[in-house]
Amino acid sequence: MLQNISLIETYCEANSSPEPAYLEELRVFTYQQLHAPNMLSGHLQGRFLSAISKMIAPKAILEIGTYSGYSALCLAEGLVPGGRLITIDSNTEIIPVIEKAFKNSPFANQIEFISGQAINVIKDLHQIFDLVFIDADKGNYEAYLEVSIQILKPGGWILADNTLWKGKVISPDDDDKITNTIKRFNQRVAEDSRLEKVLIPIRDGLTLIRKII
Predict the structure, then answer these.
(1) Which of 155, 119, 153 is nearest to 137 (CA)?
(2) Residue 174 to residue 180: CA distance in whole angstroms
(3) CB contact at 8 A, 131 and 53
(4) Which of 57, 58, 198, 213 is deepest in the core (most CB within 10 A)?
(5) Reported pTM
(6) 188-195 contacts, C-beta under 8 A, 24 or more apart
(7) What are the CA-CA distances from residue 155 to residues 46, 60, 129 (Å)?
(8) Contacts 24+ apart (CB under 8 A), 24-30
(9) How high is the pLDDT of residue 213?
(10) Per DSSP, what are the bridge partners of residue 64?
(11) How many domains is the chain built from?
(12) Average pLDDT by consecutive 10-residue portion of the chain (213 residues)?
């Protein structure tokens, strides 16, 4: 079954738009040189993020969790002229990789990287966003959701990554702390009447959320 899933993903990638050369270079570097490269969004999800961003055509994007910068670059493809993307991460060791990735892209002047704890940084932004992408430490997902709702315009969108958490969310007896955290997040999203939502089984699960009011 796992082999079939892998083959299907490969097929999907082959029948999707190719990633730009600067993204391919970043993806290869990430897998060859960085710790936990599975955190990278990758080709298929990256093209999906790009497509969603282009449909929304945001003026302002917030990304919570940068890693090596791949997903930020995908989301930036949908920015309107003059639009901005702010991305936040607390891992200082990877900053040179992020800065180089952004510099080598067409969006060097539209992306701002901020190093720090996301919750604290967001409180100081004093800005409203059209799109928020949550892909950081899973233990704070519920907190990230609430603060994202507060800074999102009515009709704005949230994307939350890893919401299937390796398929563990369907196990009724899983005592893994992160799994249960993701389960609570998913339930919280599902029960919130302020939100329209759909959990999409792409990669490790990606939830698309619209703020109604």
Answers:
(1) 119
(2) 8
(3) yes
(4) 58
(5) 0.95
(6) 188/142, 188/145, 189/145, 189/160, 194/149, 195/149
(7) 23, 13, 10
(8) 25/104, 26/68, 26/69, 26/70, 26/73, 26/101, 27/70, 29/68, 29/97, 30/67, 30/68, 30/70, 30/97
(9) 78
(10) 88, 134
(11) 1
(12) 72 96 97 93 96 98 98 98 98 96 97 96 94 96 96 98 94 84 96 97 96 90
Query: How many helices (H) and strands (E) are present in the chain, helices listed first?
Result: 8, 7
Backbone angles phi and psi of 153, in degrees to 5: -70, 155
pLDDT score of 4? 63
pLDDT of res. 133: 98
Distance CA 60, CA 76 (A): 10
CATH number of 78's domain? 3.40.50.150
Residues in the chain: 213
pLDDT at 196: 98
Task: Pick the closest to residue 101 from 90, 86, 111 (CA basis).
Answer: 111
Cα(193)–Cα(199) distance, rounded to whole angstroms? 16
Q: Determine if residue 186 is left, alpha or beta; phi over 0 gives left, psi from -120 to 50 gives alpha, anything else beta.
A: alpha
Range(s) of the domain holding residue 120: 2-211
pLDDT score recorded for residue 66: 98
Residues 52, 55, 60, 64, Cα dihedral to 10°: -10
The pLDDT score that the predictor gives to residue 1 is 47
Residues 155 and 209 sit within 8 Å (Cβ to Cβ)? no
